[in-house]
TrEMBL record:
It comes from the Bacteria. It comes from Spirosoma liriopis. The keyword Membrane applies. It holds the Pfam family Glycos_transf_2. Residues 5-132 form the Glycosyltransferase 2-like domain. The lineage of its organism: Bacteria, Pseudomonadati, Bacteroidota, Cytophagia, Cytophagales. The keyword Transmembrane helix applies. This is Glycosyltransferase family 2 protein. InterPro entries: Glyco_trans_2-like, Nucleotide-diphossugar_trans.
Length: 326
């Protein structure tokens, strides 16, 4: 039986995948693996270009843009190895990290899934990535930047403490290795998610099967400009921290994992913040002797985002099955 099935979802990223595959075949040693590419209706020459260089790649077409969870679940269903790796198309391996992760799963049966640190395109480690559910939940609240507010939120939504410095609560779906047998018990990715948040929700279920490890002495490159229509160009501000699709998905995760109360608190928080952020900006404009209605672009964008969240309100509140795609 093969050691590893590598699953890559493609949406119009043939060049990225060619670079990714080159890094896999260059650096991976002592691991018998296969590569499965699941295409989300790219409508381009991705398959011919990639298989011209790597004819051994197994290619499957979804027939529509199914998003991350559904495409990966399909790939998992086709896997022939005992372990599977979800790997983004916009990633590069720098060393034999796959053998390291397979070894962890083989040698530590109490580990349910494993990943490694991320580096940016400049090969520098990316700091401050979320590794706990609490970190993610706290990021949703828009509070003044003072330390007292952050300390209060930390006490309200604390993080767990693990004895193993590698242990985390969830792992990024950009690089996540687990066993087929673990997936059989935990279930696959939740197919209500279109993109984002599905790995957080999956981490909760995988964590019930064993420890999740983020190895601190191994890494991969995550370029982070895959198939996003706007090439990941999103201006981050204090009140607009996430793209609408990210936050719709994360609100769905909060509803699923923490229930109706936690979801309603967040929604009420956002609705309440609409007049607050406008009033604050008007006050700043008056203080600076400008028109009170000057430079409200950021505030209008926030109001528009809340409007998008509210389009999914009833569906999310009742945890209805569907496709949560903005």
């Amino acid at each position: 039986m093969l050691d590893l099935s590598i699953i890559i979802v493609n949406y119009k990223t043939p060049e990225l995948i060619l670079n990714c595959l080159a890094s896999i075949y260059t650096h991976t040693k002592n691991v018998e693996f296969e590569v499965i590419i699941v295409d989300n209706q790219s409508g381009d020459d991705s398959q011919s270009r990639i298989q011209a260089h790597y004819p051994m790649v197994r290619w499957f077409n979804m027939g529509y843009n199914s998003g991350f969870a559904r495409a990966n679940n399909y790939g998992i269903g086709q896997a022939k190895a005992r372990n599977v790796l979800l790997l983004n198309s916009d990633t590069l391996l720098m060393d034999n990290v796959l053998a390291r992760c397979v070894g962890v799963l083989d040698e530590q049966p109490d580990v349910a899934a494993v990943s490694v640190l991320q580096r940016g395109a400049d090969r520098q480690l990316r700091p401050n990535l979320y590794t706990t559910f609490g970190q993610m939940r706290r990021a949703f609240y828009i509070l003044p930047a003072g330390a007292s507010f952050q300390d209060w939120l930390q006490r309200l939504i604390p993080d767990p403490h693990f004895t193993d410095p590698n242990q985390v609560e969830w792992l990024s779906g950009a690089f996540l290795m687990t066993r087929l047998s673990t997936i059989a018990r935990a279930g696959g990715l939740d197919e209500n998610f279109f993109m984002y948040g599905e790995d957080v929700e999956w981490g909760y279920r995988l964590g019930k099967q064993g420890r999740l490890l983020l190895l601190q002495d191994a890494s991969f490159v995550h370029l982070e400009y895959g198939s996003s229509d706007d090439n990941q160009q999103h201006v981050v501000t204090h009140i607009n921290r996430f793209k609408p699709q990210i936050q719709v998905s994360q609100l769905l995760w909060v509803r699923k994992q923490y229930g109706v109360g936690a979801y309603l608190v967040l929604i009420l928080h956002y609705v309440f913040m609409i007049p607050v952020v406008f009033a604050w900006k008007v006050a700043v404009n008056l203080r600076d002797r400008r028109s009170p209605w000057s430079d409200l672009t950021n505030q209008r964008a926030f109001a528009q985002q809340v409007g998008i969240f509210l389009r999914f309100f009833w569906k999310t509140l009742f945890n209805q099955r569907g496709f949560y795609k903005v």
